[in-house]
Amino acid sequence: MAAKYQTTHEVAYYECDVNQTMTFPAMLGIAIKTSEEQSAALNRGPEVIASYGLTWIITSYHITVTRLPRVGEQIQVATQAREYNKFFCYRYFWLLAEDGTELVKIEAVFALMDPETRKVSSVPDEIVAPFGSEKIKRIKRYPKITPITQGQFLPYRVRFYDIDSNQHVNNAMYFNWLMDVLGYEFLTKHEVTQVTIRFDREVAYGHLIESHFQINEKTVDEAGEAVPLQTIHEIKIGEDTYCEAIFTWREK
Amino acid sequence: MAAKYQTTHEVAYYECDVNQTMTFPAMLGIAIKTSEEQSAALNRGPEVIASYGLTWIITSYHITVTRLPRVGEQIQVATQAREYNKFFCYRYFWLLAEDGTELVKIEAVFALMDPETRKVSSVPDEIVAPFGSEKIKRIKRYPKITPITQGQFLPYRVRFYDIDSNQHVNNAMYFNWLMDVLGYEFLTKHEVTQVTIRFDREVAYGHLIESHFQINEKTVDEAGEAVPLQTIHEIKIGEDTYCEAIFTWREK
């Protein structure tokens, strides 16, 4: 049984947007901090990982939102490194209300990379052992991110403050570029219910990125099933895709 | 004697830049949160201020940095609303190391504005009374911000995440635009020792601002005194200046 690690957090005004609810960069920042605390407590901090010549990277998130945490709310942040296979570690995060109700669930896919060669390494059992993660054979699949067919984009320059103390662009920052293109009207009239995001390449300081998006209005499919409002996103530099995402929304 | 209010804070990795030290937006965010907590504790929260038809605005900061807080450091955040005159309230913040050593001192100038008419109001004594602030006659003066004579600029669009849960652009966000123009090389080779920043107008979502700057290399003045390296900054839209700042730096 994987070890669970839990902290509490009071949601600050500067972690929230005009909707009075927590932003994705703030939620992911707190989630990752909690996993770093667990890793340090289990003697698997960055120095230990570095002693294997490796560093953690996050390749994707799959996020389910019941309700976003609100300004001033006391939340619990729980995490568990549940499973791993040859190349991927599956870590779960939960943001919970004070009474334990689930607000947000984040499934994160981690991999280990050699920072010199930039190559992904297989996961050494000794690194994962203290977390009590279950070794599995299969590779988990998340909702498909369909390509953009009729998109628009806005350009963004990667800023000094987009690089964090870990020396690279914090991948929570991608959400600034993904969300911003949707505009004030959209972002204040809709609530996100689900996000799948995949990080393909790492953007660096000074890069000029394009944040492409397409809005797929809610509809009914051939089988008569309701298909919710979705937005598809691609962060690109020239022809290269750095990040892809699909968001599902409901009207407020 | 003005009431002092103090909290503790653990510096998170996502509050720090590549220098492993806290960013200005993170420091100011935590400072303002502490003052909001003090105000709430003294029954002077935003609803009470709103009952006078008013809201707080910050017109300037004067910041003295001995050493910036580091990733993982436990700091104390103290605040005191020390003085006020007819139109301005002078609030002090201190970020202190665990042993009480002063790391950063922030003097903030607050004013009260009618959000309908956008006019600054005189400060009602009853609003300030619980803080124990001393009433003074004089207006405090901070270092002069000399105008830019030979500048360059970069443009920035005000993003959705730049507006916080208080519905306007958090003035800590101005530091993103002020710092970013100086570039990676400058920002990793120099440490800030002093900042004076004045907010003249409020930028709004969707605005395209210009972040102008001028670097004044260290020199010796006519009297033979050493003048340190300084950068002067102006946030402009067209001919209108929204914010001015002067930073003093030392080499690392």
Automatic annotation (TrEMBL), chains A, B:
Keywords, ordered alphabetically: Fatty acid biosynthesis, Fatty acid metabolism, Hydrolase, Lipid biosynthesis, Lipid metabolism, Transit peptide
Pfam families in the cross-refs: Acyl-ACP_TE (PF01643), Acyl-ACP_TE_C (PF20791)
The keyword Lipid biosynthesis is assigned to this record: yes
Domain Acyl-ACP thioesterase-like C-terminal: 147-251
UniProt GO MF annotations: acyl carrier activity; fatty acyl-[ACP] hydrolase activity
InterPro entries in the cross-refs: Acyl-ACP_TE_C, Acyl-ACP_thioesterase_NHD, FATA/B, HotDog_dom_sf
Residue stretches making up the Acyl-ACP thioesterase N-terminal hotdog domain: 4-131
Membership in a protein family: Belongs to the acyl-ACP thioesterase family.
UniProt-recorded name of the protein: Acyl-ACP thioesterase
